[in-house]
Amino acid sequence: MNAYDKALLGLYAISLFAIIALLSDVWALAAILILILMLSLVQKAAVEDEMIRESDKNREALVQVVARLEMFSRKLEEIRYDVGKGFYTFDNRLKEARADYQKDMDMNYRELARKIFEVENRLTAARRTFASALGSMDDRINSKDEEEESYRRP
């Protein structure tokens, strides 16, 4: 019972005493006013009971809505967790693939560098061989020219 209800009951009591005191000589009118006062009091009690029942229904509906929202929130959290887990798994797979790709690239780069080094060594060896062959040919040509000159001079 709140302060307004207490004040209303106090006003009903004052009205009841005022009706009895002022209208004591006209009992029929006093009885009718007292009945009207009692009727409004009973009607107020009925309205309050109806309000309490409606409030209880609303609370039950609110509890159901809250339960559904909690279930929705829980499902949403599970979905968020699953999506996060999927992204984490995907990220790990991507990192592994990137690491494997990097290893393959490094291995291919090293193999290419080794082959280029071998080709350079072969070219250097071929150049030396060619230079030696040219030098040897040059020496032979010079020696033949000297022999021919020696045959021509006598």
Keywords:
single chain; 154 residues; mainly alpha
Walk me through the topology.
Layout: H1 3-22, H2 27-152
Helix pairs in contact: 1-2
- Give the domain tally: 1
Helix content: over 70%
Shape: rod-shaped
Mean pLDDT: 85
How would you portray this structure in words?
This protein has 2 helices and no strands. By secondary structure, it is mainly α. Helices cover 95% and strands 0% of the residues. Helix 1 packs antiparallel against helix 2. The protein has one domain (3-152). The relative contact order is 0.03.
Short synopsis of the structure:
This protein is mainly alpha-helical. The chain is built from 2 helices and no strands.
